[in-house]
Amino acid sequence: MDSHTGPLLLLVQANIAPEHEEALNRWYYHHVPRLLEIPGWLWGRRYVGVKGATKYLALYGVENMDAMVRVMATDPALKDPRAVEERAFFDAIPGKTDVVSNVYEQVSGTHLGHPLLSQDHYLSVVMADCNDPAKEAEWNAWYDHSHVPNLTRVPGYLSGARFRVKTDPRFGTKAMGPKYLALYEWEGAHCLPALAESETMCAEAKAELAEWNAYGAKLAANMAWNVYRPIASHTSFR
């Protein structure tokens, strides 16, 4: 796989019971700016689902692993006090399910932050593992050099990039996954029929979906696909 230098990405997904949704969103309104007070935390974006099983998504650009550890470490002594407080507030909100928090490094595609995720766009999010270690390198090469470039040429797509889980001993035994993440920015809501609905999908998207089904999907495990619209964005003023 290719390697990219640049910030790390923290992905957080969750569902929430309807009666607690207002509390979650009220907390998030203050939570993202609070994290961006921590050195090395660059920006944060929130999304709500329009297709798929997981309703809420938050993405954060983080300068390096030391900065990530200030929030994600299991040892409170390694964490920024603001992160400790924010985690306690989050844990106190009832009704959360399907919570995922993964740290990723970019491996190919449009560079994170320049311009990927630098503006408010609809976002297609694909997460998966490879089910055959012997074919993982081949699968990744196809994904990086054929599938993602082909999709980004489909009308309505703006960018595409792939990421791989990045671990650190300071995270303790926290499990993260799926291992691979693909992010694709779309122009907007008007793209949903042509890019996300089988009955109205455009010819170019159908052709690449056929390629995925013929090869990529056969080597994919634990796959999840969601489409999100942006609801909030914040940038650090440091």
Could you list some keywords that capture this structure?
238 residues, alpha+beta, Alpha-Beta Plaits, 8-stranded antiparallel β-barrel, 6 helices
Architecture overview:
The structure is a single chain. The protein is an alpha+beta fold and 238 residues long. It has a single domain (8-235), classed as Alpha-Beta Plaits (2-Layer Sandwich). The protein is built from six helices and eight strands; from the N terminus they run βαββααββαββααβ. The chain has helices at residues 21-35, 65-72, 81-92, 136-152, 192-196, 203-214; strands at 8-16, 41-51, 56-62, 96-109, 122-130, 157-165, 180-186, 220-235. The chain has an eight-stranded antiparallel β-barrel. Helix 1 (21-35) packs antiparallel against helix 3 (81-92). The chain starts with 7 loop residues before the first strand and ends with a strand. The mean pLDDT is 96.
Q: How would you sum up the major sheet?
A: 8 strands, antiparallel, barrel
Q: What is the CATH C level class, in words? A: Alpha Beta
Known CATH architecture: 2-Layer Sandwich
Count the E strands: 8
What is the gyration radius calculated from CA atoms? Answer: 18 Å
Proportion in helices: 25-40%
- In percent terms, what proportion of residues is strand? 25-35%
Sequence of secondary-structure elements = EHEEHHEEHEEHHE
Helix/strand-derived category reads alpha+beta
Query: If you consult CATH, what is the topology?
Result: Alpha-Beta Plaits
Taken together, the total number of domains comes to 1
Q: Quick check: average pLDDT?
A: 96
- Low-pLDDT segments, ≥5 res: none
Oligomer: single chain
Terminal-residue CA separation: 33 Å
Morphology: globular
> What count of helical segments does DSSP give?
6
Provide the spatial order of strands within the biggest beta sheet: 1-3-2-8-5-7-6-4
